[in-house]
Automatic annotation (TrEMBL):
It comes from the Bacteria. Residues 19-53 form the Competence protein CoiA-like N-terminal domain. Pfam families: CoiA_N (PF25164), CoiA_nuc (PF06054). InterPro entries: CoiA-like_N, CoiA_nuc. It comes from Levilactobacillus brevis (strain ATCC 367 / BCRC 12310 / CIP 105137 / JCM 1170 / LMG 11437 / NCIMB 947 / NCTC 947) (Lactobacillus brevis). This is Competence protein. Residues 58-184 form the Competence protein CoiA nuclease-like domain.
Length: 364
């Protein structure tokens, strides 16, 4: 904690003197000024009297980062450190009192999705925009759904992005245009930002080269995963087995290299495979049945359409329409007033070996 109550006002830890009476501005309990050789000055509660407002331990990274972020965002106006918000029982690491207030949350320690959602919802209740900025613990992680689900947000020019504050470099790293390949890999573009004006301006144009695996390579990968009995693919194969199919024998037309919003878990292709097998088992399919099957298939491949700060349902419906168009053009579906009539089935190989033999015979 950088700010404490002293006498009739507030005092910054950098200007405080040991031995005086300091209290937490939120709970009014006594706090102690701490100042070591490695860690900048800060106030701490006594272990037996923790504050009722949630907060993380004050590491050097967190203390320095809060001050650096106050300077970084100061072009928008004065930044109040550790603003107490009684209406929502929260303490913002930084606060800008703008027509639409802005809260700065510098997250360095582990935090659950529920806690992020609760704090974000609190800010939204008071019409405040929260910037979640992540420390080195998160920056070292490979891009994954847990990060995206908790902290990703839409910023003008940057599309869906994650913000990482690098204390040692005193700069912002923006992982922007978050997307997912059809085989399930999360990808992004990266920019380093040193001023607020650069953040507002958005990224300079750049092109990310995405190397999608070919059909043979992807099927070979799935075959290897099945042979290793990897738990992630087992539920999918079990569901396909009930329809008489094997995951590596999927019809060629379901292969795609489309980049999507990062909502499809183990990948768009696997979602297409599962949903297609279930559609082929129908005789007549209503709009409601399609919606239910689509959602079940998404859950089976560990996909989700909603996160704390973004909604991927529109992107999900777009991919659903693409698959329906593909199946209609292939003669599998025929539109009706209530939905679709299922006219036939795609051509499935028995397994990877069977597909490989057919592929070699066709000379592809």
């Amino acid at each position: 904690m950088l700010i404490a109550a002293h006498m009739s006002g507030l005092i910054d830890a950098s200007e405080a003197t040991r031995g005086l009476d300091y209290r937490c501005p939120a709970c009014q309990q006594p706090v102690v000024l701490r100042h070591g050789s490695q860690i900048p000055p800060y106030f701490a509660h006594h272990p037996q009297a923790p504050c009722h407002l949630a907060g993380e331990g004050e590491t050097r990274q967190h203390l320095l980062g809060k001050r650096q972020l106050a300077t970084f965002f100061s072009d928008w106006g004065p930044v109040t450190l550790e603003r107490i918000l009684p209406a929502i029982q929260q303490r913002a690491d930084g606060w800008l009192d703008l027509p639409q207030p802005v809260a700065l949350e510098f997250q360095c320690s582990p935090i659950s999705r529920e806690a992020v959602a609760q704090r974000t919802a609190g800010y939204q209740r008071i019409a405040c925009y929260p910037f979640w900025l992540l420390g080195s613990r998160y920056a070292q992680q490979k891009l994954n759904w847990r990060l995206i689900e908790r902290f990703a947000c839409w910023l003008t020019g940057w599309d869906l992005c994650l913000l990482f504050w690098e204390v040692d470099q005193n700069r912002l790293r923006v992982a922007h245009h978050l997307r997912q390949t059809a085989t399930g890999a999360y990808i992004n573009e990266t920019a380093w930002v040193t001023t607020l004006s650069e953040l507002v301006a958005g990224p300079t144009p750049c092109t990310t080269v995405v190397r999608n695996p070919g059909q043979k390579q992807y099927r070979s990968y799935l075959n290897q995963v099945l042979r290793r009995a990897t738990p992630t693919l087992r539920p999918i194969q079990e569901a396909l087995y009930l329809t008489g199919h094997q995951v590596t024998g999927f019809p060629d037309c379901l292969m795609t290299t489309t980049l999507t919003a990062p909502i499809f878990g183990q990948g768009l292709i696997l979602w297409r495979i599962v949903l297609t097998t279930w559609i082929e088992e129908q005789a007549d399919m209503t709009f409601l049945t399609l919606a239910e099957l689509s959602q079940r298939a998404l859950l089976l491949v560990n996909g989700r359409t909603t996160a704390v700060r973004f909604d991927g349902r529109s992107a999900f419906r777009q991919e659903q329409r693409k698959l329906l168009t593909l199946l209609t053009q292939a003669g599998i579906l025929r539109p009706t007033t209530q939905g679709w009539h299922v006219c036939g089935h795609l051509e499935w190989a028995r397994d990877y070996t069977d597909w490989l033999e057919n592929d070699e015979k066709s000379g592809c």
